[in-house]
Amino acid sequence: MPYEVREVQPTPNPNAVKFVLDRVIVDRPTSFLDADSGKDHPIASRLFAIPGVTSLLILGDFVTVSKRPEARWAEIKSKVEQTLASV
Question: Structural domain of residue 80, as residue ranges?
Fold first, then answer.
């Protein structure tokens, strides 16, 4: 079932952004420190397919996405929203 991103919040880390969703995505914290660790997770594997994404934290009603320093948020944000809307 698709998720709607209700809000995109900055974090103290300029290479990480929090995507607040319209409902709970997981009950327990789930971290993926690299694409290999998320390859078997249906949502993480799709988010790691976005160029520049380096790690994920999925908890409650949000997903925190971290990116490579040289990657641009403008490109990543829209792709994260599209991906979450299509799962």
Answer: 5-85
pTM of the model: 0.95
DSSP of the chain: ----EEEEEE-SSTTEEEEEESS-SEEEEEEESSTGGGTTSHHHHHHHTSTTEEEEEEEETEEEEEE-TTS-HHHHHHHHHHHHHT-
- Does the pLDDT value for residue 80 go beyond 90? yes
8 A C-beta contact, residue 50 and residue 83: yes
Q: pLDDT tens-digit profile of 25-73?
A: 999 999 999 999 999 999 999 999 999 999 999 999 999 999 999 999 9
Beta bridge partners of 20: 7, 62
Q: Can you give the CATH number for the domain in which 30 is found?
A: 3.30.1370.70
